[in-house]
Amino acid sequence: MSSNFIHIDINSYFASLLQQENPFLRGKPVGVIKDVGRTCIIAASKEAKKYGVKTGSNVKEAKKLIPSIILIPAKFDLYLHCTKKLKQIFESITPDAEIFSLDEAFIPLDNCVYLYSDPYKLALNIQEKIKKELGEWVTCNIGIGENRLLAKTAGEIAPKGSILKIVDEINPADIPKEKGFLIMTKDELLKTAKFSDVCGIGFRLEERLKPFGVEHPYQINSLSDEVLEKYFGPFYSQALRRIGKGEESYILNRPENAHMKGVGRTITGYKLCSSEDAIKRVLYNLTEEVTYKVRKMDMAGRLIFVFLTGSNGGGEKSWHGHKTLKHYIRHTNEMFNILYHSLYKKWKRNFSVIRFGVGLSLLKPLKETPYPLLTEWYKNERLYKAMDKISDKFGLFTIRSGVLKEEEIIRPEVTGFLGDKKYQLDYN
Amino acid sequence: MFFPSKLVDFRIFFGYKCVVFQKIGEKIAVAGFYDKAKFTPKRFKWHTREYKIEEITIASDIKDGGVKKRMYSVLCSGNLYRICFNRDDEIWVLEEVWLPG
Protein backbone atom coordinates (compact mmCIF):
# COMPACT_ATOMS: atom_id res chain seq x y z
CA MET A 1 0.00 0.00 0.00
CA SER A 2 1.41 3.38 -0.93
CA SER A 3 1.32 6.31 1.49
CA ASN A 4 -0.56 8.95 -0.45
CA PHE A 5 -1.68 11.35 2.25
CA ILE A 6 -0.26 12.98 5.34
CA HIS A 7 -2.71 14.35 7.88
CA ILE A 8 -1.51 16.96 10.37
CA ASP A 9 -3.50 17.63 13.53
CA ILE A 10 -2.21 20.22 15.98
CA ASN A 11 -2.65 19.02 19.57
CA SER A 12 -5.12 21.07 21.63
CA TYR A 13 -4.70 23.97 19.16
CA PHE A 14 -6.59 26.76 20.94
CA ALA A 15 -5.13 26.00 24.38
CA SER A 16 -1.59 25.21 23.13
CA LEU A 17 -1.33 28.58 21.36
CA LEU A 18 -2.44 30.41 24.50
CA GLN A 19 0.15 28.43 26.48
CA GLN A 20 2.78 29.21 23.85
CA GLU A 21 1.93 32.89 24.11
CA ASN A 22 1.89 32.92 27.89
CA PRO A 23 4.51 30.71 29.61
CA PHE A 24 2.66 31.12 32.94
CA LEU A 25 -0.06 28.85 31.55
CA ARG A 26 2.27 26.07 30.39
CA GLY A 27 1.94 22.73 32.13
CA LYS A 28 -1.29 23.90 33.80
CA PRO A 29 -4.85 22.74 33.07
CA VAL A 30 -6.40 25.41 30.84
CA GLY A 31 -9.98 25.59 29.56
CA VAL A 32 -10.69 27.94 26.66
CA ILE A 33 -14.10 29.60 26.67
CA LYS A 34 -15.52 31.79 23.94
CA ASP A 35 -15.87 34.92 25.99
CA VAL A 36 -16.43 36.36 29.42
CA GLY A 37 -19.37 34.74 31.18
CA ARG A 38 -19.64 31.79 28.80
CA THR A 39 -20.21 28.42 30.39
CA CYS A 40 -19.04 26.08 27.65
CA ILE A 41 -15.41 25.00 27.28
CA ILE A 42 -14.61 25.12 23.56
CA ALA A 43 -11.11 23.67 23.95
CA ALA A 44 -9.00 22.15 26.70
CA SER A 45 -5.23 21.92 27.16
CA LYS A 46 -3.42 18.56 27.17
CA GLU A 47 -3.16 18.84 30.97
CA ALA A 48 -6.92 19.43 31.38
CA LYS A 49 -7.78 16.57 29.00
CA LYS A 50 -5.94 14.14 31.30
CA TYR A 51 -8.60 14.82 33.95
CA GLY A 52 -11.50 14.33 31.53
CA VAL A 53 -12.21 17.94 30.56
CA LYS A 54 -12.94 18.10 26.84
CA THR A 55 -14.45 20.27 24.14
CA GLY A 56 -18.09 20.87 25.03
CA SER A 57 -17.63 20.37 28.78
CA ASN A 58 -19.55 22.70 31.03
CA VAL A 59 -17.51 25.09 33.22
CA LYS A 60 -19.25 23.68 36.32
CA GLU A 61 -18.36 20.09 35.38
CA ALA A 62 -14.80 21.13 34.56
CA LYS A 63 -14.39 22.85 37.94
CA LYS A 64 -15.61 19.71 39.67
CA LEU A 65 -12.98 17.67 37.84
CA ILE A 66 -10.19 20.25 38.26
CA PRO A 67 -10.91 22.97 40.84
CA SER A 68 -7.72 24.82 39.81
CA ILE A 69 -8.57 24.91 36.09
CA ILE A 70 -7.62 28.21 34.46
CA LEU A 71 -10.32 29.60 32.18
CA ILE A 72 -9.13 31.85 29.37
CA PRO A 73 -11.15 33.53 26.60
CA ALA A 74 -10.30 32.43 23.06
CA LYS A 75 -8.18 34.66 20.81
CA PHE A 76 -9.63 34.03 17.38
CA ASP A 77 -7.32 36.54 15.67
CA LEU A 78 -4.33 34.59 16.96
CA TYR A 79 -5.76 31.25 15.80
CA LEU A 80 -6.54 32.52 12.31
CA HIS A 81 -3.09 34.12 12.03
CA CYS A 82 -1.42 30.83 13.04
CA THR A 83 -3.60 28.85 10.59
CA LYS A 84 -2.42 31.18 7.81
CA LYS A 85 1.17 30.46 8.91
CA LEU A 86 0.44 26.72 8.83
CA LYS A 87 -1.02 27.12 5.34
CA GLN A 88 2.25 28.73 4.22
CA ILE A 89 4.26 25.84 5.71
CA PHE A 90 2.12 23.19 4.02
CA GLU A 91 2.01 25.00 0.69
CA SER A 92 5.81 25.25 0.74
CA ILE A 93 5.77 21.43 0.58
CA THR A 94 3.12 21.16 -2.13
CA PRO A 95 0.62 23.66 -3.55
CA ASP A 96 -1.99 20.88 -3.31
CA ALA A 97 -1.98 21.04 0.52
CA GLU A 98 -5.55 21.26 1.81
CA ILE A 99 -6.47 23.10 5.00
CA PHE A 100 -9.26 20.96 6.45
CA SER A 101 -10.08 22.97 9.57
CA LEU A 102 -8.42 25.63 11.71
CA ASP A 103 -5.88 23.09 13.05
CA GLU A 104 -5.92 20.27 10.52
CA ALA A 105 -4.56 19.78 7.03
CA PHE A 106 -3.97 17.09 4.43
CA ILE A 107 -0.88 16.91 2.25
CA PRO A 108 -1.27 14.68 -0.81
CA LEU A 109 2.05 13.05 -1.62
CA ASP A 110 1.34 11.88 -5.17
CA ASN A 111 2.73 15.02 -6.79
CA CYS A 112 5.77 15.37 -4.55
CA VAL A 113 6.89 11.76 -4.19
CA TYR A 114 10.22 12.50 -5.92
CA LEU A 115 10.97 15.37 -3.57
CA TYR A 116 9.98 13.51 -0.41
CA SER A 117 10.49 9.78 -0.90
CA ASP A 118 10.30 9.00 2.82
CA PRO A 119 6.98 10.15 4.36
CA TYR A 120 8.39 9.68 7.90
CA LYS A 121 11.18 12.16 7.24
CA LEU A 122 8.73 14.59 5.67
CA ALA A 123 6.43 14.26 8.70
CA LEU A 124 9.33 14.93 11.06
CA ASN A 125 10.33 17.92 8.96
CA ILE A 126 6.76 19.29 9.19
CA GLN A 127 6.75 18.89 12.98
CA GLU A 128 10.03 20.79 13.21
CA LYS A 129 8.81 23.56 10.91
CA ILE A 130 5.63 23.98 12.98
CA LYS A 131 7.67 24.25 16.18
CA LYS A 132 9.96 26.80 14.57
CA GLU A 133 7.10 28.94 13.25
CA LEU A 134 4.52 28.66 16.05
CA GLY A 135 6.71 27.83 19.05
CA GLU A 136 8.12 24.98 21.12
CA TRP A 137 4.88 24.34 22.99
CA VAL A 138 2.90 23.60 19.83
CA THR A 139 3.02 19.92 18.95
CA CYS A 140 1.16 17.89 16.35
CA ASN A 141 0.14 14.35 15.52
CA ILE A 142 0.78 13.16 12.02
CA GLY A 143 -1.05 10.29 10.33
CA ILE A 144 0.14 8.72 7.08
CA GLY A 145 -2.15 6.54 4.98
CA GLU A 146 -3.27 5.61 1.48
CA ASN A 147 -6.30 7.91 1.69
CA ARG A 148 -7.58 10.81 3.76
CA LEU A 149 -9.75 8.60 5.99
CA LEU A 150 -6.87 6.36 7.08
CA ALA A 151 -4.43 9.25 7.43
CA LYS A 152 -6.90 11.30 9.51
CA THR A 153 -7.94 8.39 11.73
CA ALA A 154 -4.25 7.58 12.29
CA GLY A 155 -3.61 11.20 13.22
CA GLU A 156 -6.53 11.13 15.67
CA ILE A 157 -5.47 7.98 17.54
CA ALA A 158 -1.69 8.56 17.51
CA PRO A 159 -0.16 9.52 20.87
CA LYS A 160 0.45 13.28 21.24
CA GLY A 161 3.33 14.52 19.13
CA SER A 162 3.89 11.21 17.33
CA ILE A 163 3.80 10.01 13.71
CA LEU A 164 1.67 6.97 12.83
CA LYS A 165 1.82 5.25 9.45
CA ILE A 166 -0.91 2.88 8.28
CA VAL A 167 0.15 -0.03 6.05
CA ASP A 168 -1.49 -3.20 4.68
CA GLU A 169 1.10 -5.51 6.24
CA ILE A 170 4.02 -4.85 8.53
CA ASN A 171 7.38 -6.08 7.30
CA PRO A 172 10.04 -6.26 10.03
CA ALA A 173 12.23 -3.99 7.89
CA ASP A 174 9.50 -1.30 7.91
CA ILE A 175 9.33 -1.01 11.68
CA PRO A 176 10.77 2.39 12.55
CA LYS A 177 13.46 2.52 15.20
CA GLU A 178 13.20 6.21 16.00
CA LYS A 179 11.19 7.36 19.00
CA GLY A 180 7.80 8.84 18.10
CA PHE A 181 7.55 6.89 14.81
CA LEU A 182 4.81 4.26 14.90
CA ILE A 183 3.32 1.80 12.43
CA MET A 184 -0.02 -0.05 12.35
CA THR A 185 -1.92 -2.20 9.86
CA LYS A 186 -5.09 -0.95 8.21
CA ASP A 187 -7.11 -3.83 9.69
CA GLU A 188 -5.83 -3.14 13.18
CA LEU A 189 -6.75 0.52 12.82
CA LEU A 190 -10.27 -0.25 11.63
CA LYS A 191 -10.74 -2.83 14.40
CA THR A 192 -9.56 -0.60 17.24
CA ALA A 193 -10.50 2.97 16.28
CA LYS A 194 -13.51 4.44 18.06
CA PHE A 195 -16.15 6.20 15.97
CA SER A 196 -15.36 9.45 17.76
CA ASP A 197 -11.97 9.29 15.99
CA VAL A 198 -13.48 8.57 12.57
CA CYS A 199 -14.43 11.55 10.41
CA GLY A 200 -17.94 11.16 8.97
CA ILE A 201 -19.50 9.35 11.94
CA GLY A 202 -20.97 11.72 14.46
CA PHE A 203 -22.39 11.05 17.90
CA ARG A 204 -25.94 10.37 16.66
CA LEU A 205 -24.86 7.93 13.96
CA GLU A 206 -22.62 6.20 16.50
CA GLU A 207 -25.62 5.76 18.83
CA ARG A 208 -27.70 4.30 15.97
CA LEU A 209 -24.96 1.77 15.20
CA LYS A 210 -24.68 0.55 18.80
CA PRO A 211 -27.84 -1.67 18.78
CA PHE A 212 -26.24 -3.63 15.92
CA GLY A 213 -23.17 -4.31 18.07
CA VAL A 214 -21.09 -2.02 15.84
CA GLU A 215 -18.60 0.03 17.83
CA HIS A 216 -15.59 0.04 15.50
CA PRO A 217 -15.41 0.74 11.72
CA TYR A 218 -14.41 -2.84 10.85
CA GLN A 219 -17.68 -4.20 12.35
CA ILE A 220 -19.71 -2.31 9.73
CA ASN A 221 -18.66 -5.08 7.32
CA SER A 222 -20.80 -7.56 9.28
CA LEU A 223 -23.97 -5.64 8.28
CA SER A 224 -25.58 -6.50 4.94
CA ASP A 225 -26.32 -3.86 2.30
CA GLU A 226 -30.06 -4.34 2.93
CA VAL A 227 -29.72 -3.69 6.67
CA LEU A 228 -27.56 -0.62 6.07
CA GLU A 229 -30.00 0.82 3.55
CA LYS A 230 -33.09 0.02 5.64
CA TYR A 231 -31.81 1.56 8.89
CA PHE A 232 -29.44 4.27 7.66
CA GLY A 233 -30.90 5.35 4.32
CA PRO A 234 -29.38 5.42 0.84
CA PHE A 235 -26.89 8.16 1.66
CA TYR A 236 -25.36 6.99 4.96
CA SER A 237 -25.46 3.29 3.97
CA GLN A 238 -22.95 4.01 1.22
CA ALA A 239 -20.80 6.26 3.38
CA LEU A 240 -20.73 3.63 6.17
CA ARG A 241 -19.87 0.86 3.71
CA ARG A 242 -16.87 2.85 2.51
CA ILE A 243 -15.72 3.64 6.05
CA GLY A 244 -15.98 -0.07 6.98
CA LYS A 245 -13.61 -0.89 4.14
CA GLY A 246 -11.23 1.92 5.08
CA GLU A 247 -12.11 3.93 1.97
CA GLU A 248 -12.53 7.67 1.80
CA SER A 249 -16.05 8.90 2.57
CA TYR A 250 -17.83 11.78 0.85
CA ILE A 251 -17.09 14.18 3.73
CA LEU A 252 -13.34 14.03 3.27
CA ASN A 253 -13.41 14.06 -0.50
CA ARG A 254 -14.50 17.65 -1.03
CA PRO A 255 -13.59 19.49 -4.22
CA GLU A 256 -11.10 22.03 -2.94
CA ASN A 257 -11.48 24.59 -5.71
CA ALA A 258 -15.26 24.73 -5.54
CA HIS A 259 -16.70 28.02 -4.36
CA MET A 260 -18.57 28.21 -1.07
CA LYS A 261 -22.13 26.91 -1.26
CA GLY A 262 -23.49 28.98 1.57
CA VAL A 263 -22.62 31.41 4.34
CA GLY A 264 -24.23 31.06 7.76
CA ARG A 265 -23.74 32.67 11.12
CA THR A 266 -24.94 31.56 14.55
CA ILE A 267 -24.65 33.14 17.98
CA THR A 268 -25.61 31.96 21.44
CA GLY A 269 -26.72 34.65 23.86
CA TYR A 270 -25.93 34.86 27.55
CA LYS A 271 -29.53 34.34 28.64
CA LEU A 272 -32.96 33.60 27.21
CA CYS A 273 -34.42 36.49 25.27
CA SER A 274 -38.05 37.24 24.47
CA SER A 275 -37.74 40.92 23.55
CA GLU A 276 -38.93 41.52 20.01
CA ASP A 277 -36.46 44.40 19.55
CA ALA A 278 -33.50 42.35 20.78
CA ILE A 279 -34.35 39.40 18.52
CA LYS A 280 -34.80 41.70 15.52
CA ARG A 281 -31.47 43.39 16.27
CA VAL A 282 -29.57 40.09 16.53
CA LEU A 283 -31.12 38.76 13.30
CA TYR A 284 -30.20 42.00 11.50
CA ASN A 285 -26.68 41.92 12.93
CA LEU A 286 -26.11 38.35 11.73
CA THR A 287 -27.68 39.12 8.31
CA GLU A 288 -25.32 42.08 7.90
CA GLU A 289 -22.29 39.82 8.48
CA VAL A 290 -23.57 37.10 6.14
CA THR A 291 -24.31 39.46 3.24
CA TYR A 292 -21.00 41.32 3.73
CA LYS A 293 -19.11 38.03 3.38
CA VAL A 294 -21.19 37.04 0.33
CA ARG A 295 -20.45 40.39 -1.35
CA LYS A 296 -16.77 40.17 -0.41
CA MET A 297 -16.55 36.86 -2.29
CA ASP A 298 -18.44 38.51 -5.17
CA MET A 299 -21.31 36.05 -4.95
CA ALA A 300 -25.08 36.01 -4.55
CA GLY A 301 -27.49 33.42 -3.15
CA ARG A 302 -31.15 32.50 -3.30
CA LEU A 303 -31.87 30.24 -0.30
CA ILE A 304 -32.46 32.14 2.95
CA PHE A 305 -32.68 30.27 6.22
CA VAL A 306 -33.18 31.18 9.85
CA PHE A 307 -33.33 29.13 13.01
CA LEU A 308 -33.95 29.86 16.66
CA THR A 309 -33.30 27.66 19.69
CA GLY A 310 -34.47 28.33 23.22
CA SER A 311 -36.78 27.19 25.97
CA ASN A 312 -40.27 27.80 27.33
CA GLY A 313 -39.44 26.27 30.69
CA GLY A 314 -40.35 22.78 29.54
CA GLY A 315 -37.15 21.79 27.79
CA GLU A 316 -35.30 22.83 24.66
CA LYS A 317 -37.36 24.16 21.76
CA SER A 318 -36.35 25.09 18.28
CA TRP A 319 -37.85 26.60 15.17
CA HIS A 320 -36.53 27.04 11.68
CA GLY A 321 -37.69 28.49 8.39
CA HIS A 322 -36.30 28.77 4.90
CA LYS A 323 -37.26 30.28 1.58
CA THR A 324 -35.88 29.57 -1.87
CA LEU A 325 -36.15 32.54 -4.19
CA LYS A 326 -36.24 32.56 -7.97
CA HIS A 327 -33.67 35.35 -8.10
CA TYR A 328 -30.26 35.84 -6.47
CA ILE A 329 -29.76 38.35 -3.68
CA ARG A 330 -26.76 39.85 -1.84
CA HIS A 331 -27.98 43.08 -0.26
CA THR A 332 -28.52 43.19 3.50
CA ASN A 333 -31.89 44.95 3.42
CA GLU A 334 -33.34 42.63 0.79
CA MET A 335 -32.26 39.51 2.66
CA PHE A 336 -33.39 40.87 6.02
CA ASN A 337 -36.82 41.92 4.73
CA ILE A 338 -37.50 38.40 3.44
CA LEU A 339 -35.97 36.75 6.49
CA TYR A 340 -37.86 38.92 8.95
CA HIS A 341 -41.24 39.44 7.30
CA SER A 342 -41.68 36.21 5.31
CA LEU A 343 -39.98 33.77 7.68
CA TYR A 344 -39.52 35.05 11.22
CA LYS A 345 -43.00 36.60 11.46
CA LYS A 346 -44.51 33.14 10.88
CA TRP A 347 -42.91 31.87 14.08
CA LYS A 348 -45.50 31.44 16.82
CA ARG A 349 -43.20 32.93 19.50
CA ASN A 350 -43.86 30.01 21.82
CA PHE A 351 -40.43 30.05 23.52
CA SER A 352 -37.66 32.44 24.57
CA VAL A 353 -34.58 32.39 22.38
CA ILE A 354 -30.94 31.79 23.32
CA ARG A 355 -29.43 30.68 20.00
CA PHE A 356 -29.85 32.41 16.65
CA GLY A 357 -28.77 31.39 13.20
CA VAL A 358 -29.20 32.93 9.76
CA GLY A 359 -27.73 32.05 6.40
CA LEU A 360 -27.73 32.53 2.68
CA SER A 361 -27.21 29.45 0.55
CA LEU A 362 -27.29 28.23 -3.07
CA LEU A 363 -24.52 30.71 -3.72
CA LYS A 364 -23.21 31.45 -7.19
CA PRO A 365 -20.52 33.85 -8.42
CA LEU A 366 -22.31 37.09 -9.29
CA LYS A 367 -21.05 37.03 -12.87
CA GLU A 368 -22.85 33.70 -13.40
CA THR A 369 -26.22 34.99 -12.18
CA PRO A 370 -28.77 36.68 -14.50
CA TYR A 371 -28.52 40.46 -14.75
CA PRO A 372 -31.16 42.11 -12.54
CA LEU A 373 -33.64 44.23 -14.49
CA LEU A 374 -34.64 46.67 -11.80
CA THR A 375 -32.74 49.95 -11.60
CA GLU A 376 -33.35 49.81 -7.84
CA TRP A 377 -30.98 46.83 -7.62
CA TYR A 378 -28.14 48.79 -9.28
CA LYS A 379 -28.76 51.71 -6.94
CA ASN A 380 -28.52 49.38 -3.93
CA GLU A 381 -25.46 47.66 -5.37
CA ARG A 382 -23.64 51.01 -5.63
CA LEU A 383 -24.68 51.88 -2.08
CA TYR A 384 -23.47 48.57 -0.61
CA LYS A 385 -20.23 48.73 -2.59
CA ALA A 386 -19.56 52.14 -1.05
CA MET A 387 -20.42 50.83 2.43
CA ASP A 388 -18.19 47.79 1.93
CA LYS A 389 -15.29 50.04 0.97
CA ILE A 390 -15.70 51.85 4.30
CA SER A 391 -15.94 48.50 6.13
CA ASP A 392 -12.79 47.25 4.38
CA LYS A 393 -10.88 50.28 5.56
CA PHE A 394 -12.28 50.87 9.02
CA GLY A 395 -13.86 47.54 9.99
CA LEU A 396 -17.27 45.94 9.56
CA PHE A 397 -20.16 47.85 11.21
CA THR A 398 -18.29 51.19 11.11
CA ILE A 399 -21.24 52.34 9.02
CA ARG A 400 -24.41 50.49 9.96
CA SER A 401 -28.17 50.50 10.04
CA GLY A 402 -30.03 52.37 12.74
CA VAL A 403 -31.38 49.00 13.92
CA LEU A 404 -27.92 48.35 15.39
CA LYS A 405 -27.27 51.80 16.79
CA GLU A 406 -27.64 51.23 20.52
CA GLU A 407 -26.52 47.79 21.60
CA GLU A 408 -23.17 45.98 21.44
CA ILE A 409 -22.39 44.67 17.97
CA ILE A 410 -21.86 40.95 17.40
CA ARG A 411 -18.62 40.89 15.43
CA PRO A 412 -17.39 38.23 12.99
CA GLU A 413 -15.30 35.40 14.36
CA VAL A 414 -13.74 32.17 13.14
CA THR A 415 -14.83 28.70 14.20
CA GLY A 416 -12.68 25.65 14.87
CA PHE A 417 -14.25 23.82 11.97
CA LEU A 418 -13.42 26.80 9.75
CA GLY A 419 -16.63 26.31 7.79
CA ASP A 420 -16.03 29.60 5.98
CA LYS A 421 -12.39 28.80 5.23
CA LYS A 422 -12.69 29.95 1.63
CA TYR A 423 -13.67 33.40 2.93
CA GLN A 424 -11.25 33.45 5.88
CA LEU A 425 -8.18 32.23 3.99
CA ASP A 426 -8.73 33.66 0.52
CA TYR A 427 -10.73 36.87 0.98
CA ASN A 428 -10.11 38.16 4.50
CA MET B 1 -29.02 43.17 28.80
CA PHE B 2 -28.89 40.29 26.39
CA PHE B 3 -25.27 40.70 25.25
CA PRO B 4 -22.99 42.45 27.78
CA SER B 5 -21.74 45.74 26.41
CA LYS B 6 -18.76 46.08 28.72
CA LEU B 7 -16.66 43.02 29.48
CA VAL B 8 -15.30 42.41 32.94
CA ASP B 9 -11.72 41.20 32.87
CA PHE B 10 -12.42 37.58 33.14
CA ARG B 11 -9.13 36.24 34.49
CA ILE B 12 -9.67 38.27 37.64
CA PHE B 13 -13.36 37.38 37.54
CA PHE B 14 -12.56 33.69 37.83
CA GLY B 15 -9.98 34.19 40.59
CA TYR B 16 -6.83 33.66 38.58
CA LYS B 17 -4.28 33.03 41.32
CA CYS B 18 -0.92 32.14 39.83
CA VAL B 19 -0.13 35.42 38.07
CA VAL B 20 -0.98 39.09 38.33
CA PHE B 21 -2.48 40.51 35.17
CA GLN B 22 -2.81 44.16 34.30
CA LYS B 23 -4.12 45.97 31.25
CA ILE B 24 -1.95 49.00 30.42
CA GLY B 25 -2.66 50.59 27.00
CA GLU B 26 0.20 53.12 27.09
CA LYS B 27 2.51 54.26 24.31
CA ILE B 28 6.06 52.90 24.40
CA ALA B 29 9.26 53.27 22.38
CA VAL B 30 10.65 50.10 20.80
CA ALA B 31 14.08 49.32 19.33
CA GLY B 32 14.89 46.29 17.23
CA PHE B 33 16.29 45.27 13.89
CA TYR B 34 15.08 44.46 10.42
CA ASP B 35 16.36 41.32 8.80
CA LYS B 36 14.97 39.91 5.55
CA ALA B 37 12.02 42.30 5.64
CA LYS B 38 11.09 41.16 9.13
CA PHE B 39 11.23 43.33 12.24
CA THR B 40 12.34 41.80 15.53
CA PRO B 41 11.84 43.95 18.66
CA LYS B 42 14.80 43.78 21.05
CA ARG B 43 14.14 46.44 23.70
CA PHE B 44 11.36 48.76 24.73
CA LYS B 45 11.13 51.84 26.92
CA TRP B 46 8.08 52.30 29.12
CA HIS B 47 8.09 55.61 31.03
CA THR B 48 11.73 55.97 32.01
CA ARG B 49 12.67 52.31 32.30
CA GLU B 50 14.18 50.22 29.57
CA TYR B 51 13.24 46.54 29.16
CA LYS B 52 15.38 44.00 27.34
CA ILE B 53 13.34 41.47 25.39
CA GLU B 54 14.64 37.96 26.08
CA GLU B 55 12.12 35.96 24.09
CA ILE B 56 9.22 36.56 21.73
CA THR B 57 6.78 33.80 22.67
CA ILE B 58 4.43 34.50 19.76
CA ALA B 59 3.69 37.21 17.23
CA SER B 60 0.39 37.58 15.41
CA ASP B 61 -1.30 39.95 12.99
CA ILE B 62 -4.63 41.52 13.83
CA LYS B 63 -6.79 43.14 11.19
CA ASP B 64 -9.69 45.43 11.90
CA GLY B 65 -10.89 46.73 8.58
CA GLY B 66 -7.90 48.30 6.87
CA VAL B 67 -6.03 48.85 10.15
CA LYS B 68 -3.34 46.23 10.53
CA LYS B 69 -1.69 45.61 13.85
CA ARG B 70 1.06 43.24 14.90
CA MET B 71 0.93 41.87 18.42
CA TYR B 72 4.07 40.54 20.11
CA SER B 73 4.05 38.62 23.39
CA VAL B 74 7.50 39.08 24.89
CA LEU B 75 9.36 37.93 28.00
CA CYS B 76 11.52 40.38 29.96
CA SER B 77 13.05 39.35 33.32
CA GLY B 78 10.46 36.62 33.81
CA ASN B 79 7.46 38.87 33.13
CA LEU B 80 5.23 38.69 30.06
CA TYR B 81 4.41 41.87 28.13
CA ARG B 82 2.03 42.15 25.18
CA ILE B 83 3.15 44.95 22.90
CA CYS B 84 1.27 46.05 19.81
CA PHE B 85 2.46 47.86 16.69
CA ASN B 86 -0.17 49.75 14.73
CA ARG B 87 1.07 49.54 11.16
CA ASP B 88 -1.24 52.37 10.15
CA ASP B 89 0.00 55.15 12.43
CA GLU B 90 3.26 53.35 13.39
CA ILE B 91 2.65 53.63 17.12
CA TRP B 92 3.74 51.04 19.67
CA VAL B 93 1.47 50.38 22.65
CA LEU B 94 2.06 48.25 25.73
CA GLU B 95 -1.25 46.39 26.02
CA GLU B 96 -0.85 44.02 28.98
CA VAL B 97 1.60 42.88 31.63
CA TRP B 98 1.62 39.46 33.31
CA LEU B 99 3.74 39.08 36.44
CA PRO B 100 4.33 35.95 38.55
CA GLY B 101 2.17 36.13 41.69
Automatic annotation (TrEMBL), chain A:
SUPFAM superfamilies: DNA/RNA polymerases, Lesion bypass DNA polymerase (Y-family), little finger domain
A GO molecular-function annotation: DNA-directed DNA polymerase activity
Source lineage: Bacteria, Katanobacteria
One GO cellular component term: cytosol
Entries under Gene3D superfamilies matching the protein: 3.30.70.270, 3.40.1170.60, DNA polymerase, Y-family, little finger domain
Superkingdom field: Bacteria
Family: Belongs to the DNA polymerase type-Y family.
Record-annotated UmuC domain positions: 5-202
Pfam families: IMS, IMS_C
BP-aspect Gene Ontology terms: DNA repair; error-prone translesion synthesis; SOS response
InterPro entries documented for this protein: DNA/RNA_pol_sf (IPR043502), DNA_pol_Y-fam_lit_finger_sf (IPR036775), DNA_pol_Y-fam_little_finger (IPR017961), DNA_polymerase-Y (IPR050116), Rev_trsase/Diguanyl_cyclase (IPR043128), UmuC (IPR001126)
UniProt protein name: UmuC domain-containing protein
Automatic annotation (TrEMBL), chain B:
Protein name: Uncharacterized protein
Organism name: candidate division WWE3 bacterium RIFCSPLOWO2_01_FULL_41_18
